[in-house]
Design goal:
about 130 residues; alpha+beta; three-stranded antiparallel sheet; single chain
């Protein structure tokens, strides 16, 4: 089914998707950059596709993680709204539940979705522990 524009959003696959402010994606990108840029321990590339809001690319293939808001080569694409992504990062939604409810779609090496989620979680916990 083709996308149809409505005055209040974009209809995709029979559902109206409200436009998420770019600031939501900017917030996610800033948080992930602050947390992950320059770290080690993730050796793949994942693209978070937030539709019209944009993308976030996490690339650890060089041995050091780089976060950007540019599309790049990736082994796994994780498609979800920026709002869903923010809820997951804030711990308000479980990524498995988001997938099961159809809020998240995966293509490519889907096992990397779990790996990047674990990497983000472990890195955040280590940063919280060092700040305490």
């Amino acid at each position: 089914m083709p996308n149809t524009k409505h005055e209040y959003g974009l209809e995709r696959e029979g559902r109206v998707c409200y436009k998420i402010p770019m600031s939501t994606l900017d917030e996610i990108t800033r948080r992930l950059t602050d947390l992950l840029d320059g770290t080690e321990g993730f050796d793949a590339a994942v693209l978070f596709d937030c539709g019209e809001a944009g993308v976030i690319h996490i690339d650890g293939t060089s041995g050091v993680v780089k976060v950007s808001a540019q599309e790049g080569n990736h082994d796994c694409r994780i498609a979800m709204s920026a709002e869903t992504f923010l809820h997951i990062l804030d711990g308000e939604m479980d990524e498995t539940a988001a997938f099961m409810q159809g809020e998240m779609r995966l293509t490519g090496e889907i096992g990397l979705a779990t790996q990047v989620s674990d990497f983000i979680r472990v890195t955040a916990q280590a940063e919280d522990a060092s700040a305490a």
